[in-house]
């Protein structure tokens, strides 16, 4: 099968998200004058080591947010956001926080997760998350397409849950990271193997 996206795929559901998978989930927390917000984004990744930087993209809008979503509106106001890493045990809370709630509704309360104050930015984070990355916005990029926006942020603080550190290594197997596949499908990391680069 071959298709040009502008012509449509002719399938019951768009295969693009399933092709580009698995994708890590950035559980983004923000704060603004309307209150605190928490929402998952699967267009998310780390993009640089020094200084450490991450990005996530928002690809839809809410009627009460002027062609964007709560996370994007709030970080535009505050200039900061926090990325919380999602473990398998928090899958239901993560999913609950994806509901399209009115602006100002607190997803921390809806999802039943602990809210903790960040250290380097004025923003909440998810208490008990395996790791949280406090970020200051460095760039907001408008992408082609309706409501498509990418945000880049520099990591200014890193929280790591103590039980996720094993012999000085952040052990992803200790919490089974959740990842997004296509459609309504997710997966978790359950097996690990290592590969040495050819020049090592």
- Can you write the helix and strand succession as a string? HEEEEEHEHHEEEEEEEE
According to DSSP, the number of beta strands is 14
Q: Count the DSSP helices.
A: 4
Provide the low-confidence segments as ranges: none
Provide the CATH architecture: Roll
Largest sheet, order of strands side by side? 3-2-6-9-10-5-4
Q: What overall geometry do the principal axes of the alpha carbons give?
A: globular
User: How would you sum up the major sheet?
Assistant: 7 strands, antiparallel
The CATH homologous superfamily is termed Electron Transport, Fmn-binding Protein, Chain A
Notes on the protein architecture:
With 200 residues, the chain is mainly β. It has a single domain, classed as Roll (Pnp Oxidase, Chain A). 12% of the residues lie in helices and 36% in strands. The protein has helices at residues 16-19, 70-78, 91-96, 107-111, and strands spanning 23-24, 26-32, 35-41, 44-48, 53-58, 80-85, 115-117, 124-126, 131-142, 149-160, 165-166, 169-170, 178-180, 186-188. The protein has a 7-stranded antiparallel beta sheet, covered by helices on one side. The protein has a 3-stranded antiparallel beta sheet with strand order 1-13-14, with no helix packed on it. A hairpin with a 5-residue loop joins strand 13 (178-180) and strand 14. The radius of gyration is 17 Å and the shape is globular. It starts with 15 loop residues before the first helix and ends in a 12-residue tail after the last strand. The model has no long low-confidence stretch (mean pLDDT 96).
